[in-house]
TrEMBL record:
The chain crosses the membrane at residues 20-42, 54-72, 126-148, 154-178. It is a multi-pass membrane protein. One of its GO terms (cellular component) is plasma membrane. This is ABC transporter ATP-binding protein. One of its GO terms (molecular function) is ATP binding. It comes from the Bacteria. Its main location: membrane. Residues 347-577 form the ABC transporter domain. Gene3D superfamilies: ABC transporter type 1, transmembrane domain (1.20.1560.10), P-loop containing nucleotide triphosphate hydrolases (3.40.50.300). Residues 640-655 have a biased composition (Gly residues).
């Protein structure tokens, strides 16, 4: 409970509090003058035979109440200045926690409920607590001042039982919070257990397992009932506190009234003392007990759950809730003071193993990979084989079950998200573009970029024409009308400008035409650092320095010729590939029609017609150095003797492929 109360107290703006206290002063007036005015009205007015004086004193109470109402109006107007920043801080914690959990590969299904429901509960109860505590302080201070002015003897009689009742209530708050928290926990456990049983009600009925199912639910039902009874007992303690602190002063004062009257206390003073107790002290205590006992407990439990759920371990396991956030900013846990890497584009993965759940088969098993600075690696494999999973692991978006990933020699798990963002950049298949300006979208990862740098990046990636069509660098950008390919161009330019030394493109060019894809990939290959491309087309692999082939069983990595020789899957993928567009008469991509040692590898470019090179799929290659078809391969990549073994119309089993890339 102390943590939650300290969290709320630390977010009280001192300037706003001073203003709130200033406007609360007029509200002191009704509490301070009510008993004195009643005493004077009785002693100096009605009992003295001067009803006009009595009415005038009672009118003073009405006037004081009007002044207090003006103060109350200003107090409510300023309450939002305390409550809304508190809500913003809670939202920051929840969002930061959800994002950090996502970065670590953990789903956070409750984040939306916390944002839309629990944060609003905390906000409302926070404002209610401020008003309850403020109202209690104003009423008690006014009443005590009035009692001391009216009769110190009366004050000495009524204040001790009042303070005893208040102290007892404060002492029960910790117990009440603990029991309320336990009640909420048992309620959730009961709901979870009952939901599981009800989902299997058909199986329960079919197997005659009603007794077993009932036994499963009995335990959480009993625990929830016990927690509810314990919470009800705390409510009885609150009633006792109200009796001692609220009614105790009245009983004491009435019991002592004959003695006070014998000592010279007037009837008006006695009635004024009763007025202070009945109209100020007792209502103030009742309001405090009611407010803290309901809204206060809801505040403590809700804020506690928000803080616990939002203690999202970032990439290093540091909680964002460890410190107080600066207003308007989310606190990012201070990263370890790691030295700047000597080679920030260098990545190593050792023994990577990852599965989506404890019972699932590993998507990757014991994978070792090195990406050096200046490297250009293409990851190839069938859809669903684990290419995007590998990209997520290399970028720290997923946590491996075993193995390590290092960027620039630093374990990726030791980097805070802010540091990690400066060392690697990931461009997913579905590019994200936000409402704002073109410039803001392009420079999001490098906000202080010079215009010349942004222009050069757009020229390199191929988005300059898109920028001009959108209206220029400062033009407003609405993501809705953009095509998927246009979104990808913007995201690619944004990533190209990033200071990160490692760029990972997870099918980030899949919506671009082959020529635009080539331009973007070649731009990233020429960019300082290293690039890993999850290939959407096999042509991406042909442009890469090295290729990594994932087939679900093993991984093969190396240059094009090495992978062709070692990976049947890669040869098969090449066999289905059509070369990307070329100008008439232009040669196909280097390496398409040759294998290690000059053996046929499954694809042979035979001629260029129009703007597309026509390729043929040939039978699988024999081991390197052995021709897979009669005639072999000429040094230039064309079939020896001007014919292609297994071509169209032959009996070799090959198939002519006319489909263009993309």
């Amino acid at each position: 409970m102390r943590r939650e109360l300290r969290f709320g107290a630390n977010r009280l703006d001192r300037r706003v509090l001073r203003g709130l206290a200033g406007w609360s002063l007029p509200e002191l007036l009704p509490a301070a003058v009510s008993g004195t005015a009643v005493a004077r009205a009785l002693d100096d007015g009605f009992l003295a035979g001067r009803p006009g004086v009595g009415v005038a004193w009672l009118a003073a109470i009405v006037a004081a109440a009007a002044v207090g109402a003006l103060g109350s109006r200003q107090v409510y107007r300023r309450l939002g200045e305390l409550v809304e920043p508190f809500r913003d801080d809670l939202v920051s914690y929840v969002v930061h926690g959800a994002l950090a959990r996502g970065i670590n590969g953990r789903r956070d299904d409750g984040a939306v409920a916390r944002l839309t429901h629990q944060v609003e509960i905390a906000r409302d109860t926070y404002g209610g607590l401020i008003m309850v505590v403020r109202g209690f302080a104003v009423s008690v201070l006014g009443a005590v001042a009035g009692l001391l002015a009216l009769s110190p003897a009366i004050a000495a009689l009524v204040l001790p039982p009042f303070l005893i009742g208040l102290g007892l209530f404060v002492a029960t708050l910790g117990l009440a919070a603990a029991r309320h928290r336990a009640y909420v926990a048992t309620d959730e456990q009961l709901a979870a257990r009952a939901t599981g049983v009800l989902r299997g009600v058909r199986d329960v009925t079919a197997t005659g397992s009603a007794g077993f199912a009932t036994a499963l639910v009995d335990e959480p039902v009993a625990a929830q009932a016990a927690a509810e009874r314990a919470l009800a007992n705390v409510a009885l303690l609150r009633v006792l506190c109200q009796a001692v602190g609220g009614w105790g002063p009245l009983v004491v004062l009435l019991a002592a009234s004959p003695r006070l009257a014998a000592g010279g206390l007037s009837a008006g003073a006695l009635l004024g003392g009763l007025t202070y107790v009945a109209s100020a002290l007792q209502p103030a205590l009742n309001q405090l007990i009611s407010g803290l006992g309901s809204a206060g407990l809801r505040f403590v439990v809700t804020v506690g759950r928000l803080l616990e759920a939002s203690v999202a371990e970032d990439a290093r396991g540091v909680s964002p809730a460890a410190g107080r956030p600066v207003r308007g900013r989310v606190p990012v846990a201070d990263a370890l003071r790691l030295p700047a890497p000597a080679d920030p584009g260098h990545l190593t993965a050792a023994g990577l193993t990852f599965a989506y759940g404890p019972g699932a088969a590993p998507v990757l098993r014991n994978l070792h990979l090195t990406v050096a600075r200046g490297d250009h690696l293409a990851v190839v494999g069938p859809s669903g084989i684990g290419k995007s999973t590998l990209a997520g692991l290399l970028c720290g978006m997923l946590t491996p079950d075993a193995g390590t990933v290092r960027i620039g020699g630093v374990p990726i798990g030791h980097l805070a998200p802010s540091d990690l963002a400066t060392r690697r950049v990931l461009i997913p298949q579905e590019a994200y573009v936000f409402a704002g300006s073109v410039w803001a979208n392009l420079t999001y990862l490098r906000p202080h970029a010079e215009k010349s740098e942004v222009v050069a990046a757009a020229e390199a990636v191929g988005s300059r024409g898109l920028v001009e069509r959108l209206g220029g660098w400062r033009a407003p950008l609405d993501p809705g009308p953009l095509s998927a390919g246009e979104r990808q161009l913007i995201a690619l330019t944004r990533a190209y400008l990033s200071p990160a030394g490692l760029a990972v493109l997870d099918e980030a060019t899949c919506y671009l035409d082959p020529a635009a894809e080539r331009r973007a990939e070649e731009a990233f290959a020429a960019r300082p650092g290293a690039v890993v491309i999850v290939a959407h087309r096999v042509s991406s692999a042909l442009r890469a320095k090295r290729v990594l082939v994932l087939d679900g069983v093993s991984a093969v990595a190396g240059d094009h010729d090495t992978v062709v020789a070692r990976s049947p899957l890669y040869r098969e993928l090449l066999g289905y590939w059509s070369a990307e567009p070329h100008a008439a008469g232009a040669p196909p991509a280097a390496g398409v029609a040759r294998g290690g040692g000059g053996a046929m590898v499954g694809v042979a470019a035979v001629r260029a017609r129009g703007d597309a090179a026509i390729t043929m799929r040939l039978p699988p290659v024999a081991p390197v150095g052995v021709a897979s078809a009669a005639g072999g391969v000429a040094p230039g990549g064309a079939p020896a003797g001007g014919a292609v073994a297994g071509g169209a119309g032959s009996d070799g089993g090959g198939t002519t492929v006319l489909a263009r890339d993309g």
